[in-house]
Design brief:
By secondary structure, this protein is of the alpha+beta class. The chain has 10 helices and 6 strands.
Length: 323
């Protein structure tokens, strides 16, 4: 006799045998098709084409055995009217700029026009380097190269303090031979910064002979090519010369004598590279677009005037109707 209660059906005789349990449907919103795609949106500055993250990653990543030591980079950027040289290091919160120099500061040192050419790029790099070394009391230890500017120069350690080391950051500029970005590099190196480089991209480097013509490079640095071009144009096409070099002429800065003037500019930069802050003075006739807040009495008087004007207008209409 079976011990199983006949009144209670066995599990193997149950009606649910062989059926799968239905999964509970999620109460959350259904996933859109984009949820299942593998496409990953790029960074904002990559989408607008401003940052090369492949290069940036290699410029900011520091060796682990150097712990929290910042990795400095010498950033060079060009606009239509300016050359910008900055020494920057990266943090998680964002990049920090410790020194900057701009070519629109060069008129202070005697270079009044042509602020985006090869000579201006060199002078801006030199200004940034001397300003940075002055900030960290390294200017006297590492004076850089002030003679034979066309020669290749590398900073060597002197004394207890090592030279300030940073890496060139060119951004999205094409690094072709003779590019102006390397003029800024040459200025920074001659100014006393330790930037790993070679002479293959300087103006005057012969790719076939694999040698640097120091005279050609020095002529570019001092603006000799601009002076020669100005002299030729002045002789052959005087009208075009007046139009092409009108900025030089309006500033009373002769482009044909640029090579001679650049020597004084570079000396002036070395004598006083520090930036002088201008005191911000509020203009006398400051514009304000916000209406002045009236006092209670002034608002009350204004309402009274409005009411008087309404009453006067109503009386004039009544007089016209009577006539």
């Amino acid at each position: 006799i079976s011990s199983v209660d006949s009144r209670r059906p066995c599990s193997f005789t149950s009606g649910t045998m062989g059926k799968r349990k239905t999964k509970r449907r999620s109460k959350s919103v259904l996933k859109a098709t984009s949820y299942f795609k593998r496409f990953q949106v790029k960074f904002a500055r990559r989408r607008i084409g401003k940052t090369d993250y492949y290069a940036r990653q290699r410029l900011i990543l520091q060796d682990k055995n150097k712990y929290n030591s910042p990795k400095y980079r010498f950033s060079v950027r060009f606009t239509n009217r300016d050359v910008i040289c900055q020494v920057i290091y990266a943090t998680i919160a964002g990049d920090v700029t410790i020194c900057a120099a701009y070519s629109h500061e060069l008129p202070k040192y005697g270079m009044k026009a042509g602020l985006t050419n090869y000579a201006a790029a060199y002078a801006t790099g030199l200004l940034c380097a001397r300003r940075l070394l002055t900030k960290y009391d390294l200017a006297e230890t590492y004076e850089g190269n002030s003679e034979n500017l066309g020669q290749e120069y590398h900073v060597e350690a002197d004394g207890d303090k090592r030279p300030f080391k940073c890496y060139l950051d060119v951004g999205l500029v094409k690094t072709s031979t003779g590019a102006k970005v390397f003029a800024a590099l040459k200025g920074a190196v001659d100014g006393g910064l330790d930037i790993p480089h070679n002479d293959k991209r300087y103006a005057g480097y012969d790719l076939q002979d694999k040698s640097l013509d120091s005279d050609t490079l020095e002529r570019y640095i001092k603006g000799g090519v601009v002076a020669e071009y100005a002299e030729e144009m002045q002789e052959e096409e005087p009208e075009k010369f007046q139009e092409h070099f009108r900025k030089y002429l309006s500033e009373d800065f002769d482009p044909t004598e640029l090579e001679d003037n650049m020597e004084g500019v570079l000396e002036a930069i070395r004598e006083d590279p520090e930036h002088t802050k201008k005191e911000r003075v509020k203009p006398k006739d400051a514009k304000s677009w916000k209406p002045v807040r009236l006092t209670y009495d002034e608002r009350k008087a204004a309402v009274k005037l409005k009411l008087e004007a309404i009453v006067a207008g109503a009386e004039e209409e009544d007089d016209e109707d009577e006539d």
